[in-house]
């Protein structure tokens, strides 16, 4: 029996690896979700079992601190289980928190943090536009990873985000960062805050969007806490600037 499982695991990983190479290439070409899922259809009934093998392998890599290899498996999981919230959270968290801190400079760290953010915003929500958990993870990343001071490179993250916002504002190209000006205006009216260069305001934006789709009470409380804490962080930062 153990031998059978070992053979099956090897075959599953081989199939997934082959499909994964196709999908990683297709991702660069902006493949549609339907094509992405279709690439793994050949696994048929073995698809869920293959996913379990990959999750098991991912857990081992995480325990061993092999985060770059882990990210390759996480990318495959986003294609195999594109409608599973935890897959997107897992992949984005690994990029923004695990891989980023391995980088030698703050600028290098930012590239990985931003990659995690974009994975949630540009791919996870594109495929799952009503998934409150993905909104929650995106808002939390803006609040915790960029807005707070838990990372030595946090000041760099905030400066990089400020530059991105200044650029899209100058060109009125908010769609490039998936933000809607009318929704932003509503938040400005409700909060009295309008400096979108502050990452905490983006946390409020995405948490507010997530609340529209939150069915679980735990998700709703989490999102409300992000909004409440981000409001306090924004106000504190603005007061600090005023006192200088």
Task: Please write out the topology.
Layout: H1 2-28, H2 33-38, H3 47-63, H4 67-80, H5 85-99, H6 106-127, H7 132-147, H8 154-171, H9 181-191, H10 199-211, H11 217-243
Helix pairs in contact: 1-3, 3-4, 4-5, 5-6, 5-7, 6-7, 6-8, 7-10, 7-11, 10-11
Brief descriptors of the model:
76% helix; disordered N terminus; 244 residues; mainly alpha; globular
Tell me what you see in this structure.
- There is one protein chain.
- Helix content is 76%, strand content 0%.
- Helix 1 (2-28) crosses helix 3, helix 3 (47-63) packs antiparallel against helix 4 (67-80) and helix 10 packs antiparallel against helix 11 (217-243).
- It is globular and about 50 Å long.
- With 244 residues, the protein is an all-alpha fold.
- The chain contains eleven helices and no strands.
- The model is unreliable at 1-12 and 14-36 (pLDDT under 50).
Rough outline: globular
Total of helices:
11
Low-confidence stretches: 1-12, 14-36
Number of strands: 0
Radius of gyration: 20 Å
- Class by helix and strand content? mainly alpha
- Give the terminus-to-terminus CA distance: 70 Å
Rounded average pLDDT = 80
Helix % is over 70%
Secondary-structure element string:
HHHHHHHHHHH
Main sheet, how many strands, which sense, barrel?
none
State which percent range the strand residues make up: under 5%
């Amino acid at each position: 029996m153990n031998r059978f499982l070992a053979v099956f695991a090897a075959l599953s990983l081989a199939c997934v690896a082959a499909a994964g190479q196709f999908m990683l290439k297709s991702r660069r070409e902006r493949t549609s979700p339907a094509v992405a899922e279709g690439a793994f259809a050949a696994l048929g009934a073995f698809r869920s079992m293959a996913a379990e093998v990959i999750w098991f392998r991912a857990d081992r890599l995480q325990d061993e601190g092999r985060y770059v290899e882990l990210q390759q498996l996480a990318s495959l999981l986003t294609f195999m289980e594109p409608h599973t919230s935890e897959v997107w959270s897992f992949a984005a968290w690994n990029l923004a928190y695990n891989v980023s801190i391995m980088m030698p400079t703050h600028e290098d760290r930012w590239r990985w943090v931003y990659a995690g953010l974009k994975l949630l915003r540009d791919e996870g929500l594109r495929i799952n536009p009503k998934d409150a958990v993905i909104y929650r993870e995106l808002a939390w990343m803006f609040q915790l990873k960029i807005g707070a001071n838990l990372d030595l490179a946090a000041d760099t993250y905030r400066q990089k985000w400020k530059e991105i916002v200044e650029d899209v504002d100058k060109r009125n190209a908010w769609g490039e960062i998936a933000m809607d000006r009318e929704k932003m205006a509503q938040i400005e009216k409700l909060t009295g805050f309008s400096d979108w260069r502050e990452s905490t305001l983006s946390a409020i934006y995405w948490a507010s969007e997530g609340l529209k789709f939150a069915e679980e009470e735990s998700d709703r409380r989490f999102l409300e806490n992000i909004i409440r804490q981000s409001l306090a962080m924004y106000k504190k930062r603005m007061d600090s600037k005023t006192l200088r």
